[in-house]
Amino acid sequence: MTPRPIESADLWWRNAVYYCLDIQVFQDSDGDGDGDIQGLISRIRYLADLGVTCLWLMPFFPTADRDDGYDITDFFAVDPRLGTLGDLVELVRVARANGMRVIVDFVMNHTSAEHPWFRSSRSSKESPHRDWYVWRDEPPAYPDPPVFPGEEDSTWTKDERTGQYYLHHFRAHQPDLNIAHPPVQQQIERNLGLWLELGVSGFRIDAVPFLFSGADPHSTEAAGTDYDGAAHLRWIETFVSQRQGEAMLLGEVNLPHEQQLAWFAADGKAAGLQVQFDFVSMQQLFLSLARKDAHPLAAALRDRPQLPPTAQWANFVRNHDELTLDKLAPAELEEVFEAFAPEEGMRLYGRGIRRRLPTMLGDDRAVRLVYTLMFSLPGCPVLFYGEEIGMGEALEVPGRYAVRTPMQWEADASAGFSTAPRGRWSRPLPGGDLGPDRVNVADQRRDPMSLWRHIQRLTTMYHDAPELAWSALEVVGVRRKAVLAHVCRADDWAMLALHNLGDRRESVRLEVRSDAGPVTLVDRFDDSSMTIDGTLELDLDPYGWRWLQVVPPDATIRRV
Question: What would the pLDDT profile of 303-317 be if each residue is shown by its tens digit?
Answer without folding.
Answer: 999 999 889 999 999
